[in-house]
Amino acid sequence: MRIDIVTLFPEFFTSPLQTSLLGKAIANQIAEVHLTNPRDFTTDKHHRVDDEPYGGGVGMLMKPDPIFAAVESLPILPKREIIYMTPQGEPMKQEMFKELANYDQLVLICGSYEGVDERVCEHLVTREVSLGDFVLTCGEIPALALINGVVRLRPGTVGKEDSLKFESFEDGLLDYPQYTRPPVFRGWEVPEVLRSGNHKLIAEWRKEQQILRTKERRPDML
After folding, report:
1. What mean pLDDT comes out for the span 48-61?
2. How far apart are alpha carbons 8 and 48 in whole angstroms?
3. pTM score of the predicted model
């Protein structure tokens, strides 16, 4: 999988892309990430990537021409999605990550200022994606979240791939509570069923806990 990030702040990704499982996945060529700065495609002497919005308003908008030029400079793989990170987009969900993990190429456009010229969304972008119902200072943060969520589903990223089958959202429920040693910590005990060795009872307990936790925290999922 090839991931292209169109960003005014490529240095934002330096540490995260070299850290933990994501860094290992990139080092092992499970995914390759390329950074492209639209400022490199400006033609004026000041390298401006933003301008005032027509009709007035607060703030500045990213101009369309540097973004189009940046994306059009990239190679095109057979199965590709051009994604604009915006609060107005489709909320990120596990099903989305599973779908995108099967793509050959993801092009992620990170907005700044008050967003991008609408012609970028209408004529270049194929999908708009949101991290949630809130506003951040830049699109780099949700882009990083999307990369992490997608790449971890690629074969070889997670050591024990079976663990991907038993986590939150995989069966429409939140994850069950988990414990490790010591069996008693400050008077708080690990549930006896988990120490019983009875795998059937453990499986039943975990399913019950998933349903209870989902009812309490995310009843909208049921």
Report:
1. 94
2. 11
3. 0.89
